[in-house]
Structures are given as C-alpha cells and as structure tokens.
Known about the structure:
- The protein has about 675 residues and is an alpha+beta fold.
- The protein is built from 20 helices and 25 strands.
Amino acid sequence: xxxxxxPPRLRFLRPIFSRKDHFVAxxxxxxxxxxAGDITVLEGLEPVRVRPGxxxxxxxPAGLHHLVWEVVDNAVDEAMxxxxxxxxxxxxxxxxxxxxxxxxxxxxxxxxQYPGKSAAExxxxxxxxxxxxxxxxxxxxxxxxxxxxxxxxxxxxxxILEVDRNGEHHELEFRNGGAPQGKMRVTGSAPRxxxxxxxTFTPDPTIFEDVEFxxxxxxxxLQIMAFLNRxxxxxxxxxxxxxETKEAFKYSGGIVDYVRHLNNSKESLFRKVGFYxxxxxxxxxxxxxxxxxGYYESIxxxxxxxxxxxxGMHEEGFRKAITNVVNRYARKRNLLKEKxxxxxxxxxxEGLTAIVSVKLTSPQFEGQTKGKLGNVSIRSLVERATNxxxxxxxxxxxxxxxxxxxxxxxxxxxxxxxxxxxxxxxRKSSLDGAGLPGKLVDCSSRxxxxxxxxxxxxxxxxxxxxxxxxxxxxxxxxxxxxxxxVEKARSDKILKNTEIQALIAAIGAGVEADFxxxxxxxxxxxxxxxxxxxxxxxxxLLLTFFFRQMTELVNNGHVYVAQPPLYSTLxxxxxxxxxxxxxxxxxxxxxxxxxxxxxxxxxxxEMDFDELKETTMDSTKRSLLQITVEQAALADEVCSILMGDxxxxxxxxxxxxxxxxxxxxx
Length: 666
C-alpha cells in the first residue's frame, strides 16, 4: 500500500512442500555412552544461528522481514518514549536494509558489567540485553525480551551500527553472524548536532531461503506503525535498480485515520469517526470506531504498538463495555421497548470497525509472539473508559446513536433467523443419518489428522479427482459453480445456500460462533479449481467464506490451494508440466528452440485421472499453498475490496498489485 492512494495486498499464501525430512534415532549394539562430554553448550549468538526459527519464526519470507521489524520496533520504542519523530527505512541497491531514527542513540560508553566493551556492542552481541527490563530506559516498549537487534546481528553477514550521541558520530561493524570488528570508535562529529541510531544489515543467504526484501510487505507494516503513533513520520525508499520508489507516512489523526482508512473499502453507516482516550496509573488507552453497512466486525487491538491478534484483556474490556453502553442507550432513548430482549454483543458489533490501542509499562504477553495481552488492570481501564466516554459520545451524537441501534436490531432479527436455519440444518442432518452431503465422496480413514478434503468445482472435475485420489485419506466434495459471496450477505441468507450447507456438513465443525476447529473431520481443506480466471474467482469466494465464517480454520493453517499446471510439453519422451506462464517463460529461456509443442491444459475436468493424480493430488509430488492471515486488519480490508461493490477500487487494487502475483508462492 502506498499512502492513502492504493490499498494493500493480502499475502494470503505461503508454500508447503510435500517432501519431508525424517530424523530417526536408532539404537545399535556397542553405541558410545552418553556422558557430560556429549552436552553441547552454545554461547553468545550461536543459538540464534543454530535454531533461527525459535527467534524469528521461520527462515522463509516472514522470518526475513522479521529482521526489519525488530530494528524498526526499537526506533518506534524511542518514538513512544517521546524522543523520536522520524524513522527512515531504505532497501539499498545491494539488497541490504538500513533503518535510521532520530532518537537518543544507543549508549556508547563502556558497560559497567563488561569493562572495555561499549553498551552498544553488548546490545548487539548479547541476548536479553537492552534498555527494556528496568524502569529507567523505557516506560513503554513493544520489545521486552532484549533479543531483537542481537538476533538481526546474528543472522546477518554484515551489520554496521552508527550512533550519533553527545555531538559525536560512532561506528562499529559486525561480520559473519555478529562478530565485532574492533571496538566502537568515533569517526567524526554528529551532523548538525543530530542524535539517533543507524543500523544497516545484510541478511545471511546461508540462513534464509531468499534474501530479497519485498517492498510492499515493508510498506504495509510501516503504515500501520505510523497510524499507531500519531505524528510520527516514517519514510521508506527502495533504491534497487528498476524498483526505485519512495513513500512517506505521517498521520496527525493516528488511529482515527486508521479506522477511516479501513472503512474506505466499505460503505460507512455515518461519516463521523468516534474517538476517546483515558490514562491512569502509568497506562493509557485510545479507541477509535466507526460502523459500516457490512455484516462483519473488525476489531483490531494493539499493546505498545504490537498487534495482539489473539486479543486479550484490553479487547475483552472493550467488547463487554460496548454491549452494556449501547443497550443502556437504546433503553434510555426508548429504541428498545421494555418487552424486548437486550441486544447481544454480536448484534451491536455487526459492521463495527474499531482500533483499541493501549500502552502500559509492564505488559504481560503470552509468548514471544505477543499474540495475547494478559494484564487484568488494562481490562478495567478500557472498560471504565468505554462505559464513560462512549456513553458521552452517543449522547452527543444522537443521530449516529440511533443508526447504530437500528442496525443492531436488524442484526438481532437476522441472528434469530440464522439460528432457525442452523437448527433446521441440524434436524435435516439427524434425519439423514450421518448428516453428510450426498455428493461427498468420503475417505475410509476416521483419523482427521491424516485426512484431506478436496473441494472441486464441477461434477466432471469431481469425477476425475475421485479416480485420482487415495481413497483411504482423500475425500472429494464437488460444488456447483460459484458459491454465494458471503461478504454481501447476512447469516440467515448464507445458511440457506445449498453449496454452503454442503461445505458446513462435510467439514463437520459448525459455522460462525458455533465453529469449533477441534471438531473438523479433515486436517487439510484443499481448494482444487481450474488455473484460469473463473477458477481464481471460485477460490476467492471460498477463501472469503472460510475467512469470514470459519476464521479459526484459516488461523490454524488448515486451508490450502492446490496448484494444477497450466501447460504440458514433451521433452524427448518425458512429459513435463508447467504451472503457469512464468514457468513457461522460464522453460523457454532455458530451451529457446522448444517453442511449438506446448499443450494448454484447459481444465481439471479435461485431465485424465492419472494426469491429475501425478500433477496435483499425489502427496509425494504435488505442491500446495497454505492459506495464512498474517495481519487480520489487512486481510479484512482486502476481502472487502475484492468482494465488495466498489468496482473502481477493486480494479485499482488488481492493477496495482498484479505485478506482485509472483510473490504468491515465494
């Protein structure tokens, strides 16, 4: 995404390879004894290089970009502390990344516990070293473990640290996984009295699968950081040849601008964006909100600038309080009659877009991923602030308040109708016996962990897939045409759709609020559609359904996309399959004389079953793409753009991001 001009691209897909490495411990006669000498001690930064996934999640694209986040997060911490106003992130022509901030600069004097070594060197070479553990360095910080920038150093072939502090410019270089090249030294005066830190690092190609940064991924993350830190300017530049670009983000409205941005792809219920904030006892909360005419809630929470994708106490306090406030308002205004039941939280939150951002001195995150916030005190603060400030906002904005209640009442009626539809579906299932859709060709295994469900478009393709499958662990569910676009429909209409009923019954774990991912009948739900425009549309409709109606199915990594080839060709007597036009172009580059015996595979239904098995369904040969949602707010926005009514915006999104399609299966 570039500024407010173009929407971001959802990185839905990441690769899953069918080849697996098996490590087998064998007992043999006369094996050496196991003693103290067999215990390996990893020192310094060695553990990071031996097990990088423990620190950055993976050595794929996500892990590579995690290095950028670690360095940028340190600069953002300086901004939250009130010392940094601008951050510059640059991809250099050689592929390295440079992050510059105008904060205080990492301390450069000798560390009292390590005589002869600067504090800056310790921060870069010792795990769990930083200014975020005591009370003096940072009152508020997203990085609490002190492993961030040292991990970046460990996984780089070169890192250059520059610090402007006390009127002097200091430099220290590290190479080959974090080894300092000498001591921190003064190389001149700080330009114009500047203070701050510059980190330039080159990812190690022996660690990462690919060391090429993706500009769009970095831009998306930087924009969110700018939204969350009102007034902070973040600049980005890509200086690689042929990709030169510059972008800057700065939002005076902070999270108010963020809500307005997220709802830009939807039809707002009213123009105003509500906002309130409150602070006490070294913790604070900001909330921005606006309703739209859609049917899904979009509540995104953050703690100290970290996205808490699993929610936590702050989000819990907001959800509880908003239900109470709106019901009290509706009763007071006589918008709910005395005989009417209270509105449920789901009714009130239908169409709500909200950002809940809290800052606190000692956040209790669950795990290194910081996915959930556990501080009970922040729940109380958010709840009190919402009870008071949201109630005031509704009183001051009676027109908007009436619209909120009216929409919630409609949602309540639809919820009751949807419940009746679910009950009817359950009754039908019990009458049918097993309750499985008649067109499902099930597998014989009843162990979900080894079972796969292929969702195939069309009966002819379904027939080929049936013959090509492994009947013990692979099930086939043919669907007819394009399913209902759930982005434009309420639950009651969705649950009456025949194809969606079949999907719900086959997966066997319920739907919406009733969905229980532990009850799924198949570990892998694989979308198998033609490699053409219609196939892409069908996949998008199905992905939208799973993301909106069975969210945990996506969050837990159970949804995949099969990759049937687009072309086949003969090389001698061997038949070769090419996945797409890019693969064809690469093949022609390597075989320039091989231009005319290509065959365009028109559709799954036209492939022989053995051809479909060999290219797409055989688990030892196929390639699957796993669906993941890295940023919920981004996923929500992209679903709204692609499946909504704003045709010009959708066209702009596709045109802007078409060039990046090659990144779908990095």
